[in-house]
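Reminder to self: tokens first, then the designed residues, so the page reads top to bottom the way the pipeline ran.
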């Protein structure tokens, strides 16, 4: 995952996509040339032609040559157009805590970034991807978008690069010439991987050429065929492919279309599978993304495929390269390439078994959600969150199934309730609200599960600052809970109302409501909710004036979390103690609690608590005579808040203290120095800001303009600091937009920076005249 604006370091090569990469030098160079000339480039071509692998290679080359950050977003698993922007924002590391449209949050966060954003597999979301890419490149002059799709996005200014098949040898080519063609090199590479004894000799020239021409140079077709080198000689393989493909040319002139070639090759792979393997292939196509053996045994078994044979059949499909294996901390998982999965979808539909298998898929993930709810406090929380992150795409498919019928919607609402912490901890506020809305529309009147969905939606709306929706959802949840007599749902309603009072600085009301909710949670044995409410309760009691009792409640909450090995609410409990001490107590204790929170962040990725923690540490520094440090931490905290789409001033108890701290810092430093220190902190990537807060590093001094930039570059740097876009700079200075782009590239390179915020900081700190 990306580390934030200005340090989007989350890109790394996917070994399944780039291992033993063969060929594509020409296409890689052309794609890079197009990216230098346009903000949006789309790689197009049929399934199996290698668009994704080419995109990985282009991205790697781009990053190596430019030092730009690269973020790769795979969309193959995404089925909901409405979740496109939140998904991209999540991969980028941006939060979802704003009522503003997600596109505005993303655009604001990216406006100062140098970034290559790769959107892979856009074809099933082409309209949404076109709108998103167009919006981003128009508003963010230093962002480039590289898309892959079976069709172009159709956006003005888009450069389209059709991805051709790999080069194939000509009939009659010599052995020496043939073995240098890309398709032959890929076949040999993959055949050698499955059959280490595989070797080419000059006598193989004719069948080798015939085979590669028959496969049309399609990388996926070549890889599927290469698997057969384990059992067949090269000539046997070429002869069998000739026989398999003859049906395509029987009643037509010339060669079949490439998509027919691909289909025929997959048909042949399918025919070579056993009956159970074909069954598992079709049934496993209901999974989105990857899946593990337990899920395969539950969802794919039955009839001709007994549960006890699933492992054996999975092994057979791995052997035939229909399934690919991936290693994760929790064990092995399996996935299919999208073209292979789509073939399985067609086969399952032909048998009429789609509805039944999708229901079994839903039931499995509903059971998984139930186990999560039971074990959340009993086992390794980090492992559970990691597992749900890996299953996120499958959870979406299961919830989508639940939107079909009223009785299924009840199951979906129960799933949302069971994994409520996942939506909250991962900051998936927009998505969580979307699923509640869709399920609420389908569920029958009076179902008790609705109250839990509504309070969850009300909480997520509150977090985003959508107060009208928050109140509406809470009122409905309260009415539903009362009608069904569900005291636990009513307790959650009280808890969310208490949280709203805490945000609004109504501490007496917050204390009362939290206390009542906690009593109900304990009566119903919901310890997770008890812990969640307790740290908020302690903060409210403290700020209501009962410091000793508040301190005791918070100390108990932290101790209970530590005793259980709980990590997520522990971080918030520690922060609550830090906030209370900062506002009304011991600043040394507040700082120590903040340090513990930041060290927990190394295990728990929660930017919101980091933003709060840096804010409190800045206040502590301001009140203990460290104004320079306070200003830097204030800037760092504001940068984190900006990436999560919220601000600490949304919490009214902080408004006056933050203003007082700002006045203290500016009085001590003067406005000019204070702004320079603040800007330096704002330019820090989150990881660097945390290291600075823990006093593990110091901010870097600014580089001197006279040493690195030309007069024209210095002039442009100062205009960049005003926040103008490249086109606006070009208009002001009367030069071409491309000239401005080039100058800014030189500025960033010379200063060793990666984004425009850092340039603005340098201008502010250097004080050099334009």
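Designed residues (770 positions):
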């Amino acid at each position: 995952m990306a580390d934030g604006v200005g340090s989007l370091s989350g890109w790394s090569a996917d070994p399944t996509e780039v291992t033993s990469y063969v060929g594509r030098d020409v296409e890689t160079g052309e794609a890079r040339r197009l990216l230098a000339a346009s903000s949006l480039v789309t790689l197009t071509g049929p399934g199996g032609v290698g668009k994704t692998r080419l995109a990985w290679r282009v991205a790697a080359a781009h990053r190596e040559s430019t030092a730009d950050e690269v973020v790769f977003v795979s969309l193959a698993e995404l089925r909901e157009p409405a979740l496109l922007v939140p998904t991209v924002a999540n991969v980028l590391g941006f939060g979802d805590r704003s009522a503003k449209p997600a596109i505005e949050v993303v655009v604001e966060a990216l406006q100062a970034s140098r970034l290559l954003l790769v959107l892979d597999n856009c074809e099933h979301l082409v309209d949404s991807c076109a709108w998103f890419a167009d919006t981003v490149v128009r508003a963010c002059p230093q962002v480039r978008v590289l898309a892959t799709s079976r069709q172009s996005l159709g956006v003005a200014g888009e450069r389209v690069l059709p991805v051709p098949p790999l080069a194939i040898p000509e009939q009659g080519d010599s052995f020496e010439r043939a073995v240098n063609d890309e398709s032959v090199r890929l076949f040999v590479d993959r055949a050698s991987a499955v059959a280490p004894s595989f070797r080419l000799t000059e006598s193989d020239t004719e069948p080798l050429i015939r085979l590669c021409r028959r496969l049309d140079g399609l990388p996926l077709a070549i890889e599927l065929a290469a698997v057969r080198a384990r059992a067949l000689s090269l000539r046997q393989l070429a002869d069998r492919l000739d026989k398999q493909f003859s049906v395509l040319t029987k009643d037509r002139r010339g060669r079949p279309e490439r998509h027919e070639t691909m289909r025929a090759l997959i048909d042949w792979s399918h025919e070579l599978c056993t009956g159970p393997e074909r069954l598992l292939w079709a049934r496993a196509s209901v999974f989105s993304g990857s899946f593990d053996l337990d899920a395969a045994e539950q969802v794919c078994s039955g009839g001709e495929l007994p549960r006890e044979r699933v492992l054996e059949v999975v092994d057979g499909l791995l052997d035939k390269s229909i399934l690919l294996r991936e290693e994760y901390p929790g064990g092995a998982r399996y996935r299919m390439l999208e073209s292979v999965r789509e073939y399985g979808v067609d086969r399952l539909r032909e048998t009429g078994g789609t509805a039944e298998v999708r229901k079994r898929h839903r039931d499995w993930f509903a059971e998984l959600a139930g186990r999560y709810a039971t074990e959340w406090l009993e086992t390794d929380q980090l492992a559970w969150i990691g597992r749900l992150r890996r299953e996120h795409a499958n959870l979406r498919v299961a919830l989508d199934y639940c939107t079909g019928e009223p009785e299924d919607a009840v199951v979906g609402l129960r799933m949302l309730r069971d994994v409520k912490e996942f939506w909250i901890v991962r900051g998936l506020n927009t998505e969580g609200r979307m699923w509640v809305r869709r399920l609420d529309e389908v569920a029958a009147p009076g179902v008790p599960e609705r109250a839990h969905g509504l309070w969850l939606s009300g909480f997520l709306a509150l977090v985003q600052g959508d107060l009208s929706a928050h109140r509406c959802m809470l009122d409905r949840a309260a009415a539903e809970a009362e009608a069904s007599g569900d005291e636990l749902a009513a307790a959650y309603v009280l808890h969310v109302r208490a949280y709203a009072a805490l945000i609004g600085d109504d501490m007496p009301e917050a204390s009362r409501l939290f206390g009542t909710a906690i009593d109900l949670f304990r009566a119903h044995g919901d310890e997770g909710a008890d812990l969640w409410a307790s740290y908020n309760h302690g903060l409210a009691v403290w700020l209501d004036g009962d410091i000793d009792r508040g301190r005791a409640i918070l100390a108990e909450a932290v101790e209970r979390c530590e005793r259980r090995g709980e990590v997520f609410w522990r971080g918030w409990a520690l922060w609550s103690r830090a906030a209370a001490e900062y506002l009304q107590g011991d600043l040394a204790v507040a700082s120590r609690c903040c340090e513990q929170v930041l060290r927990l962040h190394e295990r728990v990725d929660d930017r919101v608590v980091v933003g709060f923690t840096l804010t409190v540490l800045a206040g502590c520094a301001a009140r203990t005579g460290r104004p320079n440090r306070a200003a830097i931490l204030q800037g760092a905290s504001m940068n984190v808040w900006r990436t999560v789409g919220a601000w600490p001033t949304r919490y009214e108890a902080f408004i006056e203290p933050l203003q007082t701290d700002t006045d203290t810092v500016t009085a001590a430093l003067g406005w000019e120095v204070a702004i320079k220190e603040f800007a330096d902190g704002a330019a820090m990537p989150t990881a660097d800001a945390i290291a600075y807060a823990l006093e593990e590093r110091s901010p870097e001094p600014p580089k001197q303009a006279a040493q690195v930039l030309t007069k024209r570059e210095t002039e442009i740097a100062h205009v960049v600091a005003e926040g103008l876009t490249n086109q606006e700079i070009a208009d002001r200075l009367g030069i071409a937009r491309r000239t401005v782009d080039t100058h800014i590239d030189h500025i960033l390179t010379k200063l060793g920076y990666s984004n425009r915020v850092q340039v603005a900081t340098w201008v502010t700190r250097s004080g050099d005249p334009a």
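The beta strands are 40-44, 69-74, 115-120, 143-149, 159-162, 324-328, 331-335.
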